[in-house]
Amino acid sequence: MPSYSRRNFIKSSGLAIAAAGVLPASLWAAANKTRETLGIQLYSVRDDMRKDPAGTLTRLAAMGYKYVEHANYVDQKFYGYTAPEFKKLLDGLGLKMPSGHTVMNGSHWDAAQNDFTDKWKKTVEDAAYMGQQYVISPWLDDSLRKNYDDLLRFMEVFNKSGELCKKSGMKFGYHNHDFEFSVQLNNTNLFDLILTNTDPSLVMQQLDIGNMYNAGAKALDMVNKYPGRFVSMHVKDEIKSESKHEPYESTVLGKGILPVKEIIDLGRKKGGTTLFIIEQESYQGLEPLDCAKSDLAIMKGWGYK
What domains appear along the chain, each with residue ranges and CATH number? Predict the structure, then answer.
């Protein structure tokens, strides 16, 4: 399924920093000694997770996955499980969940009270309970893409969410699609506005190296432009899509047109990347779980474990 469907899924699921807070790559190499983590975004196997979450997680663990990233937190539950239930399930399989996707939108911020709503506070609380390091919002509402001042105000909310997450030892994060590179406000694309108006000490960036390609943007350029800013990457490869939704869709790593290994190696060397998350949303007739197994083997062959 092309990433267009993930957008619909996301929609239905419930201080400017000088020079973008960039550090020289040499400083990142010296300072960033966090252990690398390789995991899978569970949206890659979304239909299997919908039908049989426990069975699907069991199969992923048997393949050798040790880390997962959720894309389903609805009504204060992960795939239908409360936080204690889902943590017990993961613990039983030897799986950890360092990050997860939950959309934060304007409804989660009460401007009159200058505070987050209880719903967003609960989201952060449950993420902390699960042992997450990052609470990642993978969408920016259309209404926030139309006015420069509105966007900058919401970037302050991003920073405030980072402050909230920091109280529990986490960071807030943002995950791109392609519109961030094609939509401009005040002659600047949204991605640059997000990167230059969020505090890197509070807000991490998860670079989806595949989504951006549909807007003509290249991950290598972004890592070179903003070294040290991409704690996490969604690792994807892309091929021309047969659908009418977007020009490209994801495929098994190494089978497409992106220089995936070059990108992730640069992320490791210069991007500050320590969390590598496999995501494949389209399968060209293959079974999603079979693709997940192939993707893991390829990443391990490239030296990512």
Answer: 3-13+23-279 (3.20.20.150)
